[in-house]
Specification:
- The chain is an alpha+beta fold.
- Helices cover about 30% and strands about 30% of the residues.
- Strands 3-1-2-4-5-6 form a six-stranded mixed sheet. It has a five-stranded mixed β-barrel with strand order 7-8-15-11-10. A three-stranded antiparallel sheet has the order 12-14-13.
Length: about 300
């Protein structure tokens, strides 16, 4: 059964009662909540994801619930729980779906240490993956959404799960998080992408999520090999500039985006080295998505030999 097979009232009732078991490959999330905004977000953005209304096991048991007491009368808020752990301060009630998304990222980034986990978007063509590392606000999600809208397959918008054994990227396909002006940029660039509700005044500004294209959702199960590393920087009005980066600089910047590099020790160093050393690394400044998508399509297809630039 998929989420879209449930009526809205059935989904809300299931979330309030025993919860739903949502498969976001490769993980199974058990989610409970009485928040209708969260149910609406799940219905709109996880429509074609497998779901069950009963189960005994899940990788993570999550609960988003209203804060009780007098506070709910003048400042309605919700808490996020992983089992009985409450790792965050409460957030306004209208942010319940975004809170769930951030909490799911936190669960994976803080518990799945069999992978080296990088703060990166990842898209691919066939088995060839493009790694897009960057801090929040760098433009990696904007570029990720644009490339997905133009036929690249999505592996992840936020977390690159790198297997230290063979350095392949495990897909973790979930809605793409867009912030502030990137929401309208993508709405104009890719009107066929489904965007969820825009939530204002979050800790990250205005936030909306884009649904992964349904026909290619299952392709996220397939891991991919990194062929290119590109550090994007979006700036309104900026002319497109693509430069090859020294490998040492790329290594240091990628290491800064690793959540659990220290835990992996020597293995983490070796894994990053094997990602960087054989692949061309670029720095991109951009604002025109049509121009940059065309440039990347032509440049990366000719970049089998490191160092080839237009």
């Amino acid at each position: 059964m998929r989420v879209v097979d449930l009526q809205q009232n059935q989904l809300e009732e299931a979330l309030r009662d025993r919860g739903i078991w949502l498969r976001a490959w490769p993980f199974l999330f058990h989610i409970r909540s009485s928040e209708t905004a969260l149910a609406s977000g799940v219905a709109a953005l996880y429509a074609n994801y497998p779901v069950a209304l009963d189960g005994d096991w899940a990788d993570f048991h999550l609960r988003i619930c209203a804060v009780n007491g007098l506070r709910k009368l003048f400042r309605p808020q919700v808490n996020f729980y992983l089992d009985r752990l409450r790792p965050f301060k409460p957030l306004p009630r209208n942010q319940s779906f975004a809170f769930l998304e951030w909490g799911m990222n936190w669960c994976v980034a803080n518990h799945l240490h069999r992978y080296l986990i990088l703060h990166c978007a990842v898209v691919a063509k066939g088995d060839d993956a493009l790694l897009l590392p960057g801090a929040s606000g760098s433009g990696k999600s904007t570029l990720c959404a644009a490339l997905v809208a133009r036929g690249w397959r999505l592996l992840s918008d936020e977390l690159a799960l790198v297997d230290p054994v063979d350095q392949r990227i495990q897909g973790f396909v979930r809605p793409i998080s867009l912030k502030n002006q990137s929401i309208e940029v993508i709405r104009d660039f890719a009107p066929n992408l489904t965007l969820g509700e825009v939530v204002e005044d979050t800790q990250k500004g205005s936030v909306a999520h884009a649904r992964p294209p349904d026909p290619r959702l299952h392709e996220g199960l397939q891991s991919a090999t990194v062929r290119w590393v590109l550090f994007p920087h979006y700036q309104s009005g900026k002319a497109t500039e693509l430069h090859e980066m020294p490998k040492g600089n790329a290594f240091m910047q990628l290491q800064e985006q690793a959540f659990n590099y220290q835990l992996h020790g020597e293995s983490g160093f070796d894994t990053l080295t094997r990602l960087i050393q054989p692949n061309p690394c670029y720095e991109l400044h951009y604002s025109n998505l049509d121009e940059v998508v065309q440039l990347l399509d032509s440049t990366l297809s000719r970049a089998e030999l490191p160092g080839v630039l237009p």
